[in-house]
Give the backbone structure.
Amino acid sequence: MSDDLITLTIDGVPVSVAKGTLVIEAAKQAGVLVPHYCYHPGLPVAGVCRMCLVEIEKQPKLAVACAIQAAEGMVVNTQSAAAKSARTSVLEFLLINHPLDCPICDQAGECELQDFTFQEGRAATRYSPEYPKRFNPVEDFGPDVLYVPNRCILCTRCVRFMEDVAQEPVLNVSERGDRAYIGVHPETRLDHPWAGNVVDLCPVGSLLSKDFLHKARAWELDKSASVCTGCSQGCNVTLDTRENVVVRVRPRPNLEVNRYFICDHGRMNYRWMNRGDRIEAPLVQRGGELHATDWQDAFERVTTVLRGAGGRVVTLVSPRASTEALFFARELFRGGGLDWTGAFQVVMGEEAPLAGVPDLALRAERAPNGRGAELLGYGREYAAALAAAESAAVVLVLDEPDIPVRTAGTLIYVGTVLPERARDAHVVLPIANVAEEEGSFVNRDGRVQRYAQAKTAPGMARPAWWVFSELGAALGQGEPVGSAAEAFERVAQAIEPLRGLSYEQLGFGGRPAAVPAAV
Amino acid sequence: MGYPHKPHPKETVLLSRYFGEADARTYKGWVKRGGYAALEQARAMEPARVIDIVKESGLRGRGGAGFPTGLKWSFMPKEKKKPHYLCVNADESEPGTFKDREIMRWTPHALLEGTAIAAHAIQADVAYIYIRGEFTEPLAIMEKALTDARSAGVFGDLKIHLHRGAGAYICGEETALMNSIEGKRGNPRIKPPFPAAAGVFGMPTTINNVETLAAVPPILTKGAAWYKSLSLSSPKSTGTKLFSVCGHVQQPGNYEVTLGFPLKDLVYELCGGMRPGRTLKACIPGGSSVPILDRAETESCLLDYEGVVERGSMLGSGGVIVFDDSADMVYQIMRLARFYAHESCAQCTQCREGTAWTTKILERILAGQGKPADLDLLLDLAENMTGKTICVLSDSCAAPVVSGIKKFRSEFEEYIAGRRQPVLVA
Amino acid sequence: MSAGAHSSPSVGPEEYQPVFTEQMLEQLQEILARYPTKQAALLPALWLVQRARGWISDRHMAEVAEVLGLTPAYVKGVVTFYTMYHQHPVGRHFVQVCTTSPCNICGAEAVVQALLTATGAKELGATSPDGKWTVIEVECLGACGFATPVLVDDDFIESVTPEKVPEIVRKYK
């Protein structure tokens, strides 16, 4: 056993943890969830809610598990009568002023106050109905955040987030005693690129997202692991969908990338996933117009063009396309002695770091897979590629609307939405967007991360990797792949920095590829 | 001295010797009275020696906790690697207590001298005297005394600064006091870390009460053995204490007696006893945060740390609040609960909500709307508020409630049963 | 929905006179020298503002924040914690009467009533119609043996009884 590990017992379960581990974290490792509110692994310890009181042998008073370090031989009991009674009393105290808003509160169904009250609260309050509950009006804190003071349990997670993690203390605790509430100064409201995290951090329905207000019930939501497409940081997110519509984006913890947070830009970056104006069927040019057809017909059209192609081929891709799609799109033109140019362009924006977390920011590059595109041989000289496309024999476009007005050669447009300029395309193939497929991105630090499918693609749209894999097979390049995992395997075999990686290995935490990080 | 009255023969006049003498406030006047000799003495010793002397004297913290002072000083790092700080707790806000105010008003230099000696013992470079904002007169007097002593060069390299509070009882809690000095809300901190390891500005710090420090100079000049010999009962309680007696006595004031002195004599003799026609009903011996004593307990209680514990309460700050038979115990306990509810910092759930809830229940009882179940509810809430929070304000609210219901239950029942006229409007 | 439920009475930006002019800054410098951090000068700085302006508005808080390198919200959190800082204008004379139990059993509440009547303030916390007086109840003032203590501005008056109130009130212009 390493010198830095100590062993303690929690609810009868022995567990070994690193020295300095908090009892509440050691308990997690023992499979015990100690009820808590103010504690959060991404925030400095406060120890104020008093919910996590546990009994520690040989200590006269109950202790808060969030503020005590595990010690060798410690025996912790979270289920002793004293500990349970203490927690029950904390819940009772919290509920005397907390309104019975569940029927109209967004947090219902994902509310820690509900959860722990069901688990260990009293069945009925002893607070006389004659006392009015504390009342303060709802406050508009800023761009996306509403504060409902009546529901606030003063855990101070929001204050600590803004002070310590965002390092812009714009939230305070105002006043004292049972008059206390979370306050802002009128001249500096809650306007920060990472402010939305306070809504996730709030254990109850006190801090609410205006964007999500009254949109859906927590239990109606399906959750899928995904990766934010807002920039090249690659924050891990969860997409919440309701009846096949993405209604909310929330951070998914990843200690290597975004810890527990995402920025507001990424948080709001989902409406486009639900666009209705999608290409829903393969389209082929006939009589000066695009007509819907089936996949077989469309594929035949494309392979005819590609078989006869010679000379210059230009592939313009979106840096939002999956690594798998980008790979198979390039493979189409392997061999055959074609002069191939692949390029992508990235929309740039202002960087917005989260000051208290090293290497975490809303990145200037507003696309998730620029690095992946680079790894696969696509370049950034987009203007040159555009110019070359005007005289190229074949122009293949992957979901990028900025294409030449006219091209001498054949235009094949593979995308989610049909831009005006693609109406002259020879063939248009409909694909799934990031929410509608499995795939992977490589973030700016060279980390390869998977995303899962959150909703079904409209109409006949299919994942882009499938489209290009089938085309490749039709061109005699071998068997097509049957899954995104298999697609990735082919990528990993062919691309040196990804050698040895697989979907199984990546899991949903991702792995670094063998590439130097971006500057 | 039974200030503002003449000293009673049964008092042991040490700290209060010069109360009432305006000249004693001046630097020259203090030196004339032997002042700053102890500091000179201390400076000539190694810090560790000074600590040993104070340890031997048996001096215990006079702010309320009664922690052995020499022992507290010895927690500071012996080898000085970072700046050391001394904080003087002059936040005196415990209901019933008004002794530190008198020390600062009449013998400011005693406090300054004690501060300087303590600073030497713990190797502090800076001392902050945290004076509650309402003490306008002590602030002005301390300011003048500090200026005069400083100009006389008495403090050497030691920097002593006054820091004015702004209305928060909780800032008398040592970690909240440090936060307040740092320019923060007066929230108590979780311990560990303890102040001697990481205190104000994260540096090793000792916090001492005004009365504690004022006792240090005589301990040096007259010797630890002498101070230790001042003990009437328990050998663990030595020296004199200023007891602030208030409420229903003929002569409220500060009385200095040797520890172990009978509470009965303090109340009936030194303070002139009850008002005509009145009998003692209850007494809080150590500031409102300690359990209430009934008459029998009061009359058999010895005033030292162990003696009061024996009677089921605590010596605390020595703020003796006397209630005669005219007092409405239910109302006064409600008023105390309201005090704690007003002063809660709001960090801990039990305190923030519990102090207010307790007050509401008591108000409802006083408004004639109490229910029999209310008493058990109050006791249950008090238990939930005890031993579970960052600081003991919550426990302090529970103390009068629990002891009050235990010993004066009939008064509560009178209101609940409707046998007593409501005194509040619902 | 309220956007500024806890905002102070407004002082328009055009009308705002900074508190920390050269002379005040000198005072502040002396205070800053006492502490290793700027933040620690916050309570003393707020006292300077209150002494100069009689109360501390949101705008004042923002000025103090700027001078000390803090955020306005942070300063506001501190101001609202300590009850002696006024967050709105008060009468020319501010009266604090202790009514905690030791003074309570010695007739403090009657002293409060007498003061409300004699000053014309009528209600606790309200300012008298002539703008001269605001009377509030406070918690233990640390003078329990001299019941009932009353703070009028910086004057700490001991042993006040209802009978002495009119005389006391008369003394203040």
Summary: DSSP finds seven helices and four strands in chain C. The mean pLDDT of chain C is 93.
